[in-house]
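Per your request, structure below.
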């Protein structure tokens, strides 16, 4: 059996652009071409794609996956053990950092010095104090919470509007990359993720690459945060999560 790039993309749940990117970097080159030069994938190609997506789901970088699949001396079990250790460490880190991590999206809403009318005007009908009590009870003792309150307490309506406009523009740019099929570990996506990290770091509280990946994990773990991104574009929460992790690996 032979499959077109569109058929493979539909079956595997990836974009055509992702498959083109995999071909361009030599990770997954189709085994055949049509008379017109169009890509044609065989069953062995689909098997390789399945293994690629499996390792991507575990967090492997594309170059690591290529090494696993193409290096005859590579030990896949050793790589999986390493990934298991990294995931275990991340779980423990998330447990220790949960208080600071969960404050991420709520931090912007702490200590907002606006009238009720201004809050609804700036945040388009959303009450930014909705989860204030919950956040204060759970994370009020953390440095991230205190630093965010210190910074935001003096923000004016104009400050909040400017920050909201900046974040909306950034989200729109990331959503456009997703719409274009740009892989989450492509330079453009990673650059956008880095800009997202710098935004949090500058507007709310210190946010290094490790903190940023913890926030990214929360974007897909907490339905409230996931819904925020999904409302912008379906799939955006996971796409931003993957771009943030790819950017963090790039800076290691």
């Amino acid at each position: 059996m032979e499959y077109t790039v569109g058929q493979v993309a539909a079956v595997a749940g990836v974009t055509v652009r992702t498959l083109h990117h995999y071909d361009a970097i030599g990770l997954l080159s189709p085994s055949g071409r049509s008379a017109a030069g169009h890509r044609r994938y065989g069953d062995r190609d689909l098997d390789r794609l399945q293994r690629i997506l499996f390792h991507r789901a575990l967090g492997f970088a594309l170059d690591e996956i290529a090494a696993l699949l193409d290096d005859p001396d590579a030990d896949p079990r050793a790589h999986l053990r390493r990934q298991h250790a990294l995931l275990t460490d991340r779980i423990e880190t998330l447990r220790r950092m949960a208080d600071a991590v969960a404050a991420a999206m709520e931090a912007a809403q702490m200590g907002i010095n606006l009238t009720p009318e201004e809050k609804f005007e700036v945040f388009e009908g959303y009450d930014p104090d909705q989860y204030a009590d919950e956040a204060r009870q759970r994370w009020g003792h953390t440095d991230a919470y205190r630093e965010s309150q210190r910074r935001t307490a003096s923000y004016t309506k104009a400050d909040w509007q400017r920050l909201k406009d900046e974040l909306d523009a950034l989200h729109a740019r990331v959503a456009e990359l997703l719409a274009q099929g740009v892989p989450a570990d492509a330079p453009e996506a990673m650059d956008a993720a880095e800009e997202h990290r710098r935004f949090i770091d500058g507007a709310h509280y210190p946010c290094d690459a490790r903190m940023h990946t913890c926030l990214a994990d929360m974007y897909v773990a907490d339905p409230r945060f996931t819904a925020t991104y999904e409302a912008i574009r379906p799939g955006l929460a996971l796409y931003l999560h993957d771009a943030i992790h790819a950017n963090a690996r790039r800076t290691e």
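The first helix runs from residue 5 to 12.

Regards,
D.
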